[in-house]
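lol ok so funny story. i was supposed to be doing the assay writeup but got distracted and ended up predicting the structure for this chain instead. priorities right. anyway since i did it might as well share w the group, maybe its usefull for someone
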Amino acid sequence: MSIRHLLAAALLLWGRAEIACAQLVDAPTLVVSPFQEHLHRMREGGWPSARPVPDTVKQRLAPLFTADVLDRARYTVNVNIVRVTRALAHQPEARAVTAYDLIAFQNTTDTGDLSLWANQLLHVRSYQALGPAAYAARYQTPASPMEDEAVRVELRVRQALHAESRKVASTPAASVSPNGAAEINTNMMCKADFQTCFLQFPWPAKPGEVVPCTCVDGFGVTHHGTAY
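and the output, tada:
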């Protein structure tokens, strides 16, 4: 091979090396924040024992969230996840946190708060839209639009529940006794999932008798329960 050919080959290799170096310099560096790492650990650690969102919650919040959010999310009761995450997220009073698509409640009582479910499911939806890095960054910023929206959704559901309670409390339902006479059961209530309402019995219930009942919430969903 001639000297000219050797020089041409050397220049070609040098050019390729420069291009490769430039690509390495220009390539984006993936920096994972400590909080993002924390969310990942909490999600992976809690997922195997997590449960699907209860059907009653799905049914009631279906007007606010799509099926892919309600079906994807899982929940667990783990006070340790809540304590550590809310400290890192600068939300010391949080009763639940969301590690990507895993919702962690601090106790079983809070799993009965429909407005808290709405707040956390909004976080699941935000994670699906933003991805892990952007979600973690906004989650750790209490004044972010994501957190503001979560609070608004929670407040909206709480107000709807309060309006339902006031409505049923002011209009007790009439029941019908075996002889066909209308009666007002002002002392009987129906406890159905997250909803409490006055009852419509086919006849007055006897003391201590267990009577099936239903309530219709502000979203038009019927819930089955037991009278007391």
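DSSP finds eight helices and ten strands in the chain. Helices lie at 3-26, 34-46, 55-61, 67-72, 79-88, 114-130, 132-139, 145-170.
back to the writeup now i swear
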